[in-house]
Amino acid sequence: MRVIAGSARHLNLKTVPGMDVRPTTDKTKETLFNVLNADVPYSKFLDLFSGSGAIGIEALSRGADKCVFVEKSRNALSCIKDNLDFTKLGDNAVILPMDVIAAIKSLESNGEVFDIVFMDPPYNKELEKSVLEVLSSSSLINNDSIIIVESSNETDLSYIGNLGMHIYKEKVYKTNKHTFICKDN
């Protein structure tokens, strides 16, 4: 796994040992950032269920002003720190070692709005639904914010309309997909 583009281009990243984390493949990550290309520079990026931190690090490498990494696994947190040190992108990073819902509530008190929210929760446990329900009324996003959910192809997101949001793009791969969501205007 490596950084695809930007200031840390071609640097190899550590992955979290074991089967608890599924790293996003380089090809899938490249496709994701091709879609987000114009939105990443100068953005505030929120990486939920960060794992190794590869997605947030890619955003920082491509010019995001800030990335907040949210992860509760100790092994993953260590991996994120090592990867940020290795890529020298840590100055623009904040790591929150906690549950995603707790992190969202904590971040709301700062008054920040994120341009891009990426989440890659464990597949087929409906964790993305809980997070989207909280985000739908959160001050962390506005009508210009982009939310991306990485999930298994079987994941049903048909409830999005009930949350005052809509899906505006979906990229389907062999075993997973990226769903691009924004608030209704």
Helix content: 25-40%
CATH architecture title = 3-Layer(aba) Sandwich
Query: What's the alpha carbon Rg, rounded to whole Å?
Result: 15 Å
Please report the distance between the alpha carbons of the first and last residues.
37 Å
Q: Tell me, what is the CATH class?
A: Alpha Beta
Described by strand count, sense and barrel closure, the largest sheet is: 7 strands, mixed
**Can you give the mean pLDDT?**
92
Estimate the strand proportion.
15-25%
Write out the strand line-up for the largest beta sheet, numbering strands in chain order.
3-2-1-4-5-7-6
Query: What is the H/E string?
Result: HEHEHEHEHEEE
Helical stretch tally: 5
The CATH superfamily is identified as Vaccinia Virus protein VP39
Structural class: alpha/beta
- What is the total domain count? 1
Flag low-confidence runs. Answer: none
Under CATH, the topology can be stated as: Rossmann fold
- Please give the number of β-strands: 7
Protein name: 16S rRNA (Guanine966-N2)-methyltransferase
Keywords: Methyltransferase, Transferase
Organism: Eubacterium uniforme
GO molecular function: methyltransferase activity; nucleic acid binding
